[in-house]
Amino acid sequence: MKTWRDFLRKKDVACTFQRYGIDALGAMAQGLFCTLLVGTILNTIGQQFHIGFLTQPVVTLGQAYTIGGLASLMVGPGIAVAIGSALHCPSLVLFSLIPVGFAANAMGGSGGPLAVYVVAIVACELGKLVSKETRIDILVTPIVTILAGIGVSALVAAPIGTAANAVGEAIMWATELQPFFMGILVSVLIGMALTLPISSAAICASFGLVGLAGGAAVAGCCAQMVGFAVMSFRENGWGGLVAQGVGTSMLQMPNIVKNPRIWIPPTLASAITGPLATCLFRLQMNGSAVSSGMGTCGFVGQIGVYTGWVNDVAAGTKAAITAMDWIGLVLICFVLPAVLSWAFARVLRAWGWIGEDDLKLDL
User: Fold this and answer.
1) How far apart are CA 128 and CA 355, in angstroms?
2) Which of 56, 103, 108, 223 could form a disulfide with 115 if both were Cys (CB 3.0 to 4.6 A apart)?
3) What are phi and psi of 65, to 5 degrees?
4) Which residues of 238-273 are buried (b: 16+ CB within 10 A; e: fewer)?
5) What is the rounded distance in angstroms from the CA atom of residue 223 to the CA atom of residue 244?
6) For the chain, where are the alpha helices, taking DSSP H only?
7) pLDDT at residue 2 is higher than 70
8) Measured at the alpha carbon of residue 96, what is the angle toward residues 91 and 100, in degrees to the nearest 5?
9) Radius of gyration over alpha carbons of the chain, in Å?
10) Given this model, what pLDDT does residue 363 score?
C-alpha cells in the first residue's frame, strides 16, 4: 500500500477536491472561454458589423464553418487540454487529450462539456500513470490515454450528458413555473459560485442554463462582481473597481474567509436583482450557456444576452430589440448591483460588521 501511495505521489496523481473540484473546474471554464465563447463573440461581431472574413466560411467539414464556428467546434479538445494542463500532464498525455475531448463532447450531446470534464480527468490520470514507464513511451502513453479516454467516453459520456441536460431542463422549467423564487435561488447560488474558487461558467455550461434561468444567473454573477467592486472602492480605488468589476470577484475570497460578513451585501443584491430579472424584465440568456456564469467578466454576460436577442430576432421569435430590453440589461447588470451593494455595505459598516480594511485587496 505504501509503495502504491509513493508511486501515485511520484506521478503527481492526487485525488483531492482542490485538484478536481477547483483546479480542473476552473481550467474547464478557461477551455470553454477560449473556444465556444470566443467563437460566439467572433460570429456576433462579424454578423453585426458585416465583417467579411468573420462571416465567410473558411473550412467545410460536412458543413461550412466560419472562424468563430471552428473555434466553437473545438470546445471538447479545448476543455480537455485545459484540464490536462491544470492537472500537470506530461506533454504526450496533454496532446493525446485532444481527440479524447472531441470524442467525449460529441458523445455527450448537449451535456458534452460535463462529459469532457469527467472523461478528461480519468484519461489524464491514467496517462500520467504509464507516462515514461516504458522504453517506447512515445507509443504507449498516447495509445493508453486515447484508448482509455474514448473507451470511458463510450461508457459514460452519453449518460452524463443526458443527466446534465435533464438537470438543466428541470432548473429552466422550474424558473419558468416559479420565476420569483427560482430567480432568487439561481441568482444567489450561481453568483456565490462565481466568487468561490470554483467556476460558475463551467456550471452553467455543464447544465446548459439558458432562458430565464440563464438571465437569473447573469443577474447573480453581476451582483457579486459589480457589488464587490463598488462597495470596496474606498479601499481599492479604480484599480480594484476594474479588477473586480471586469475581472472577477474571486479576488475577495481571502477577505471573505477572514470576515464572511462582507459577502452579505452583494448576496442580498443578487437576491433582489434575480427575481427582478425573471419577473419584471424577463431577462433571458439565449446565447451560449457559458455566458450565463460570466457576469461582467469582459462583459461576456452582456454580450451573451445581446447575442441571444440577435438570434431570436433572426429566428423570428422576437420582433425587435426594444428600449425596455436595454433598460433591463443596464439596471440588472450594472446599476442595481452597484446601488444595492453600496447601500447594504454602508449599513454593515455603520454596525461595525465591516471594518476599515476588510475589503482591501493586495493589488
Assistant:
1) 47
2) 108
3) -125, 135
4) eebbebbbbbbbbbbeebbeeeeebbbbbbbbbbbb
5) 11
6) 2-10, 17, 24-32, 38-49, 52-55, 67-73, 75-86, 91-108, 112-130, 137-152, 158-177, 179-195, 200-207, 211-231, 233-242, 253-258, 264-275, 300-315, 323-330, 336-351
7) no
8) 145
9) 22
10) 66
φ, ψ of residue 58 to 5 degrees: the values are: -115, -20
- What is the pLDDT of the chain when averaged over all its residues? 91
Set of cell numbers at residue 267: 448576496
Indicate if the pLDDT at residue 223 is higher than 80: yes
The pLDDT tens digits for 84-135 are 999 999 999 999 999 999 999 999 987 888 899 999 999 999 999 999 999 9
Cα–Cα distance between 94 and 81 in angstroms, integer?
6
What is the rounded distance in angstroms from the CA atom of residue 260 to the CA atom of residue 185? 20
DSSP per residue, 123-180: HHHHHHHHTTSSTTHHHHHHHHHHHHHHHHIIIIIHHHHHHHHHHHHHHHHHHHHSHH
| Maximum Cα interatomic distance, the chain, rounded to a whole number of Å | 68
